[in-house]
Amino acid sequence: MQIDATAGAYGLFQVVFADLTEHLAAAVFRLQQAKDPSVTFEQIFRLEFKRVLDRFKEELKQFDGKRSLEEDLHWLHDAVGQMAAIAQWRHDRIHARVIWSE
Q1: How far apart are CA 21 and CA 43, in angstroms?
Q2: Per the confidence metrics, is the pTM higher than 0.85?
Q3: pLDDT of residue 59
Q4: How far apart are CA 24 and CA 37, in angstroms?
Q5: Sign of the torsion formed by the C-alpha atoms of 77, 12, 28 and 31
Q6: Which of 36, 56, 61, 66 would suit a FRET pair with 72, their CA atoms being 20 to 30 Å apart?
Q7: Three-state DSSP class for residue 46
Q8: CA–CA separation, 99 and 35 (whole Å)
Q9: Cα angle value 57/34/63 (rounded, 5°)
């Protein structure tokens, strides 16, 4: 059996994206659970990636103004931007229009 290199690479990307989603959901869960012990991982994990990312951005706001975390927050905000760009790249390919030509 031969696997098309493009399809294989995209499949690998999907696995990595799923792992990123799970780790992001876990971070949001831990941050939200600290404030609300009734929150469950399933409540966070079942959200689409963009909503989890938005919640993560909201959770980061609690650390704004803490000078000791300034550099770390800069990197986290940068990572949020990169994750949003990766999600958009994925979205564009999942919902790509196929144009047939003869």
Answers
A1: 14
A2: no
A3: 95
A4: 18
A5: negative
A6: 36
A7: coil
A8: 49
A9: 40
Q: What is the DSSP letter of 62?
A: G
Measured in whole angstroms, the distance separating CA 38 from the mean position of its chain's CA atoms is 23
What are the tokens at 49?
Answer: 């990636």
State the sign of the Cα–Cα–Cα–Cα dihedral 81, 31, 50, 17: positive
CB 37 within 8 A of CB 69: no
Cβ neighbours of residue 84 under 8 Å, at least 6 residues apart?
50, 53
Q: What is the pLDDT of residues 11-41, one digit of tens each?
A: 888 899 999 999 999 999 999 999 999 999 9
DSSP symbols for the chain: ----HHHHHHHHHHHHHHHHHHHHHHHHHHHHHHH-TT--HHHHHTS-HHHHHHHHHHHHGGGTT-GGGHHHHHHHHHHHHHHHHHHHHHHHHHTPPP----
Whether residue 101 has pLDDT greater than 70: no
Q: What pLDDT is attached to residue 48? A: 94
